[in-house]
């Protein structure tokens, strides 16, 4: 095991890194124009189709995950392209739902 000293605001913390931590998959930000499922869930309602023009903040879809309904908003203005999901689809984590160009 490997120890590392972290200095946060002048306070030192001794941490223990495990192989699981050092071998983990690194987080990478997705493209701003890709709408992905951040957790596994189901598309309940799609409010857009391929070719639709959207403005920032428009409601794109209703996504149910962990018994909660999440309203997914457009992060930017543009045109809907590459709509990969349809209503009722169960999606795994990381699945691309649609792209805004």
Strand order of the largest sheet: 3-10-8-5
Please state the overall shape, judged from the principal axes of the Cα atoms. elongated
- Largest pleated sheet: 4 strands, antiparallel
Under the CATH scheme, the architecture is Beta Barrel
Mean pLDDT: 89
Total E-strand runs? 10
What class, by secondary structure content? mainly beta
SSE run: EEHEEEEEEEE
CATH superfamily: RNA polymerase II/Efflux pump adaptor protein, barrel-sandwich hybrid domain
What can you see in these coordinates?
The protein is mainly beta. It has a single domain, classed as RNA polymerase II/Efflux pump adaptor protein, barrel-sandwich hybrid domain (OB fold (Dihydrolipoamide Acetyltransferase, E2P), Beta Barrel). Helices cover 4% and strands 49% of the residues. It is built from 1 helix and 10 strands; from the N terminus they run ββαββββββββ. It has one helix at residues 19-22, and strands spanning 2-8, 11-17, 34-36, 41-46, 53-54, 59-65, 68-73, 78-81, 90-91, 96-100. A 4-stranded antiparallel sheet has the order 3-10-8-5, with no helix packed on it. The termini are far apart.
